Every structure is written in structure tokens, then in C-alpha cells.
Amino acid sequence: MIVAEKVCVVGLGEVGLPTALYIKDKGFEVWGYDISPNALRRAEERGIKVGESLHKIPPINIYVICVSTGLKNSKPDMSAIYDICEKIVEIGKPRLVSIESTVTPGTCRKVYENVFNKEVSLVHVPHRYWSGDPEHYGVKQLRVIGSIDAESLEKGLKFYRDELKIPLYIAPSIEVAELCKIAENAYRYVQIAFAEELKMICDELELDFNEVREACNTKWNIEILEARDGIKGHCLPKDIRYLISLTSFNNLLKAAVETDQIYQAFLERKGKKVN
Q: Is 47 left (phi over 0), alpha (psi -120 to 50) or beta?
């Protein structure tokens, strides 16, 4: 397939680089940008054209934003999203901007109104990438798309569904898509925390956790996860705290975070390594 449009993937980390490579494999001319020289080097070695700044990249039709979001003073920090979108505005008006980064509800609409001045088409297609099994849970898997308006949705569907061949669930609003991603990760966190607490209960009762888990999981609607070395990584600990910060209805979520902290201390007392 020969495609005239140029796509720029912003953020070339664990999610962004596979995304850029996937889009390139579909026949697009793909450029990449990242603040990390090492990330740029890795992308260039894989055949992705890179720019040390967005201003050094040719005019782009579609921007796919995959930058990391984080916490600042235990609160959601969306500054990376705003910074990139402000840079895009300085360069010119693209045909479509897609935010794949995890953001809090309302972020995309604020960016659309306050940064883009309602002058671009904007969609939110949160990633579900899992590096543990990219073949089944990589870029091409069922994903949620939310849009700022009908025109944006049409362009987003054309790009993701028709051209990239990614199956999509259309959310009724962009805010639903935003909350969906955070809720998915928070739910996973709670599941793991339950397994951790059950493991501590089994230890206190002098029972084998794996034997109890295996017995429980014979029931059709039960799936207790493994309890490993505590909840690590960037996404799950961050996203459950995003959800906690959004509402006062967060007792279960707070308890899950506390449970993981207790579990990690439990492992340390048992003399097991916590990574």
C-alpha cells in the first residue's frame, strides 16, 4: 500500500517504538520524536526516521502521542501532553492528532479547547500494549477509541480501523475512553492486591497459597491471580492513584494500595527479594 501521509509518533519508549514500527509496516512514512537520544538511536536503528525536535521533522499529517504521563506530588501530571500539543500547534495544523497516552478524564477536551483552539481533529485511543506477549497483546488488538466530535471519529476510524487494521470499540465520548484506560489498570491492581492478601492469609493459617488458589479457580467465575513480588512497573501503581485522585469513592482503591505495601513488607520480613 502506498500512502502519501506522514505520521509522527511522539514518544519512542516501550509503547511508542512498537507503534511506530507497526505503522511503518503498514506502508506509512513514519517519523519519530523523543527527548531521549537513546530512544531516537534505537528507533533509527529499526528504520524509523527521527528528528531531534519536532521542528526538524517535515510537515506531518497525523501525530500519534505516546509520551509517558506521571505523578507530581502524588497528583496526576499531564504536563507532558500539554507540552507536546503546544509544540504541534507551533508547527502547523495536522489532519489528525491521536493521544494514546494514559490521561485523566477531561484532559483531551481541555487540550482540544485550550491548546488546539478547536482547530484539529482529536481522538483518544489508549494503548493496551503488553511487552510480555506483543504477538497477542501488542499494537494490533481490540482497543477503545473516543473522539472529540463526529469528524474526528471518522478520521480516527479511517486511520486505525481501515488503514492500520486495528479492531476498535467506539466509546460514546472521549471521556469514557479516558476513564476506561485508568479503570482497566486499577481493576488489575485490585485483583493482584486480593491475591497478595490471600497469600498472607494462607501463610498465617499455614496453608499453601498455590493449592488454595488452584482449588478456587476451578469455579467458573473465579480467577485468582498469582501473588508475586509486589505490584511494580510504571502503569498500574500510577493509574490506580489517578483514579483515587478523581473521586471520594476510593475506599477499595486505597485499601488495595495499602495491601500491596503491607505485602511487600511481608516479603521483606520473610527474606524474599522485592524487585
A: left
Domain count of the chain?
A: 2
74, 132, 122: which is closest to 101 by C-alpha?
A: 122
Check if the beta carbon of residue 129 is closer than 8 Å to that of residue 15.
yes
* Residues 6+ positions from 36 with CB-CB distance below 8 Å: 12, 13
Beta strands across the sheet bearing 143-147: 49-50, 29-33, 6-10, 62-65, 96-99, 122-124, 143-147, 168-170
Whole-angstrom Cα distance, residue 57 to residue 47? 15
DSSP letter assigned to residue 149: S
One domain, residues 166 and 212: no
Q: What is the pLDDT of residues 15-31, one digit of tens each?
A: 999 999 999 999 999 99
216 and 90 share one domain: no
* Residue at a domain's end among 146, 171, 196: 171
Q: What is the pLDDT of residue 1?
A: 43
Look at residue 131 in the predicted model and tell me its pLDDT: 83
- Give residues with Cβ within 8 angstroms of 71, minimum separation 6: 77, 238, 241
* Same domain? 148 vs 222: no
CATH number of the domain at 202, please. Answer: 1.10.1040.10
Q: Which residues, 6 or more positions from 87, have their beta carbon under 8 angstroms from its beta carbon? A: 54, 55
Say whether both 128 and 209 belong to one domain: no
Three cell numbers at 88? 504541534
SS3 state at 127: coil
